[in-house]
Structures
1.
Amino acid sequence: MAAQAGKTGAKAPRRARIKAQGSAQAASRHASAKTRQPRAQSPRHGGSPARENQPNLNRLLIVSSIAICLLVAVMALYPALRDYYLALRSVEQLDAELSAVLNRNERIIAQITALNTVEGVEDRVREQFGWVKAGEEAVNITGLEITDSTTVLPTAVNTNDVALPSSWLTEFLDALFFIQSDTSPANVPDPFIDQ
């Protein structure tokens, strides 16, 4: 224990001397700083105006880099996105045509079903040929417009007569991809290909 106390005691005056020297050096530096001319601070210490503008420059570089990358991505993906959109519009057109054909087929099936009965055949013969049964009188009325005749098959579906489904989104995308709404997507020329 006594040996430890002796060692710490010997170190204590040495620490005091180092402390005194450090404070004397600090005081002399402080005094000389007052008499010296102020020097320009180097960019390392954060005092120059160029250093203060550095974060703004970095932010501008990052934003412009992102904008350029997005522009390049849009330019690279635009043709593929347009083709994809045209395919979706073609599928919508074909779905609309299919539903029109199915509707026509249902009307034809209803006519066939009616002709498979005796009453249906009688109605068809009366309508188409003007025949009457024994004891009936035929009356011919003119000037009336018949909207749905059972004697005539429904007309075939014309692909140009089937309208594409439309919404605000499809109108926006048609304008974005230069598609005219009065033409079907299959007939739309590509504006990026010379014709």
2.
Amino acid sequence: MSNGPAFPQRKANAIVWSLSVFLIGAVAFLYLGPNLLSLGSLSPSTLPKLNAVLNGACAIVLVLAWRAILRKRVERHRRLMYLAVTLSALFLVSYILQHGTFPSVKYGGTFGWLYYPVLLTHIVLAAAIVPLVLITLSRALSARYDKHRRIARVTLPLWLYVSITGVVVYLMCAPYYSEAAPAAPPPVVEHVDSQG
């Protein structure tokens, strides 16, 4: 016996796909487009550090949530998954602010053979994970647990990969964030006339 959806599935799907297209479009525009935002004197390395912390925390929470559901601790799993979604949403806001404010940092190390494949898979799967997380969440919220479990088996490992590789990409680029900082203006020196 199945519980009926608490929210019409057609409406949920429309919201999921509209939100996914909007978020992916906003990120792509700010990543590829002009820097339209200003965050005052915030260092270009601050938001990437925050993003790495949010990604790392999300990865830990995902593992704990997976462990909880394997042990049939459904309420704990639910709370942890809400936390993972919140951490990912905060990450997305910070990421949008970062790329809307500062130019993208280019990797300048000698491990490009490792960095670029990790970056490419991270970007592709990060775009794919947006609708997957929203679909998985909507199925849980509408009490469609059979379908929730089926898609969660795909969503969880991909989401975990994206979270972990987000930290890896940050660590590989961290030395180059200071180079992206705009040059400080020269100090103002007052000229004092000694002739009285």
3.
Amino acid sequence: MKNKLFLFLLGAILNFTFFFSVKATGQTSFCRDSVLNAAREIINETDHCALITTDSTGLPHVRTMSHFPFTPDFVIWFATARNSMKVTEIRHNPKVCVYFSDHTKADGYVAVIGKAEIIDDKALLLSKKRDYWDGIPRWKEIFVLIKIVPKKLEVINYPRGVNSDPETLKAPSVEF
């Protein structure tokens, strides 16, 4: 009986010690540049992303979007119809999330949380024109731009080893 109790206590102590040693050494911190480079890689490999807004009842609304090349400071641009639901939702609540992932590769994802702004600037719209817009009658009058200024970026990039914290499961992030 004493041997069983001793073995039980020894096992409990070893498990406790192992758990806390893994917890202390298992966490990985990433420098800002590593997180941003991992995010750039995922974003550059995706042609489409998801724009998440909030509707007037507070529920999330997700749609697939084709983004313009993002800027070095991770500002994201889209074009859309000025009378679209997303424009209405952004005017009501500019807090948005843009989600990038290529699910055919499952290499990871990037979530950019930020503030959206509707930009009604014809010269800027013309500078961002895409060839297929020529097939859309009156696109110059219909389209406006959406500018997303990032506040926070979260990234998982498995090939680069940028993974979630093993204890909290939070993705590495950068605040802007």
